[in-house]
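User: For my dataset I need records formatted as: sequence, then structure tokens, nothing else. Please produce one.
Assistant:
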Amino acid sequence: MKPVNSFRCLMIGVACLFFATPIVTAEEHLIIDSDSMVNMQVIQITAIKQGLNLSKEAVSSTTLSKKDIDIFRVGSIKQILTQAPNFYIPDYGSRMTSAIYVRGLGSRMENTATGMNVDNVPICDKSLFDMQMPDIEKIEIIRGPQSQLYGRNSMSGIVNVYTTSPLSYQGARIHGEYSSRNSFRVGAAAYAKYTKYFGASVAAEFSKQGAFFKNTFLGRGIDNERNTYCRLKGEYLKNNFKLSNILSFSILNQGGYPYRYEGNLTNEEKHPELVSKISYNEESTYDRKGITYGCIVEKKWDKMILGGVLSYQYLDDKMHMDNDFLPYDYFIMEQNRRLHDINVEAMLRSSKRSRYEWIVGCSAFLRHTTIDAPVTFKASGIDELILRNINLYGGYDGEYRWGKVNGEGSEELPLVNYFKTRTLGYAAYHTSTLKLGAVKLSCGIRIDAETARMKYDNIVNSYYTAFPSQEGKPPTEVNLLIQDEDVLDKSFVQFLPKFSITYELGEGKRNMLYATISKGFKPGGFNTQMFSEVLERKVKNKMGLSTPLEIDKIISYKPEKSWTYEIGGHFETKNRKLTANLSLFYIKCTDQQLTIFPQGQTTGRMTTNAGETRSFGCEASILVRPISRFEASLNYGYTNATFTKFISGKNDWSGKRVPYAPCNTFSGILSYVHPVKGNVLNNITLSLRYSGAGRIFWNESNTSSQSFYSLMDFTVRFGLGNMSLDIWAQNLLGTKYDVFYFESMGNKFMQSGRPRTFGIRINFKFLEK
């Protein structure tokens, strides 16, 4: 009889945390006779709504295997680069800014156009997308509208991330890494099975990143970070019943927003000494705490499968930003946010592949968010953004000065912005699929309903003093008090159909052609960052300067909707030495949501709706395995996304390219494993990744852009039994490129991509068996 070792005893503590997992009985005890043969159930990692093999579905998708993830150290979605065609995530700002662009659709702020699930648990807010997660087993990137199955925020696709299951792997893993800028990462994970039915795991990682960029005014690095992540997982599988409990939490402390000044929009440069420099006088930081719990249930019968997900997420983050990005006292912004999200979903689908297949489901979520977002005007901001125009055009015979008569309170103008938002959504969906020989017809519909209520309380309580021009007339001290309280409501219902047809061809039906028509949508919302602009204009109006104020247009924006038409195919040779995925698409989008900085000396940024846009393009993915030890893959995507109707103020941007979405994405990967006959060294793996994106237009007028740029990453791995040693380089050629551009207060700003980086990584595996 095999004794209980110390490793198993250690893992008992992990199992106790998962009270929802069934208690292990005596018959299921972990001590198994060494001669016994256990018929284990197959552990398959897949989304509970989809089939096991995406190459058999009418979708355009890319799957990153564990080998790809490990060799290029992919721990978050921003490290995917452009390995999926027309899939682009720029790394700028902070981990809060997880903007994903797919086929010309995307969003910098508020709601995302691409959803994300981790182990079938939906991530409720894109500020949590960029988490550094250890032991990722597989990543699926599905492009095109997935709204019919996943609802809101999946109109351009979905990213499914799966982590290692304790039922499929038992043992321990440890890794350590050191790289440029005195950066390091350490992590450990342990997986154990207590019976043939129940397993549990714990995985944790801590990383410290040095700064890539320097604030020349403060004389120190600006984008350093510390990141802590831990995940606990318990899984039970018996008689086609699976129950998973997953709890994860993360803590992030990050400097960010390394935006360099690129000059004034006018011909007269006011700050020539600051051009091409990151130089501002306030620290800009982002701190985040996140907790995610998910309970996933799946029960299989002969003819159908029942699945369910119950999840809770908590987000507590704080952003502090020098919002003028200059070494002057204009204004600073903070955003303190707390978010609670509860999501529940149940679905039932047919299990056996028969002539008729179906899926039916329903879901609901409740989200409660509180935001405290004060904006503080400093001395220069008060003088140049408020008092200068009022004194010039306000009509007062004299001069306004900020603060009391004695000068008290003249250095700051605080604008208090407080919001409470509650969003309730519920949906029902159904898909029917009929097979007629080699042809498969599918039709689905989803009904999505959502209501959002925001209560806001915005306050200005300060003083200004009027100094008359007439001699001998005393100044007048005025208490400026503005308080706005109101409740805003939004609600909508969306019908989201999807139609597809597939045709299987070739020997063994390994190849298929497909065509789809589907509708996607992204919900509307409220521009919380524009309330400071509203207060600023009300301050000017109170002081005699009449400024236009269309609150309804400034504060809220409408849902974004799209229709996508796509044809494609999945192809594979008999020996699987060549696989290929090809697709063509056309997208018609109405009310596309764009993030803009309003013209003039404004202080906020807002999401607005463009009239209409259209996007068309192609995608190709090819994987070649000529010999068992060599692989070569090629991924290319082309997107032509333009405005067909968009009038913004006095400008007509019809015919212009949609900003921030790259026209081309490309990646090529070569991997070769060379076996070594030695007592210590077993093999050497060489991997080379060449990726690129561009052209990327930065504004609606298309006057500024980033041309196509390419990056080269390299990894050499030495296999040493249960240990491996990686030596790697990112941006090996030292390509200089930009990842972000914006205009604010009449100034231009940019962020550069990361420079060349080198590192070394050690991995250990301790197998239990």
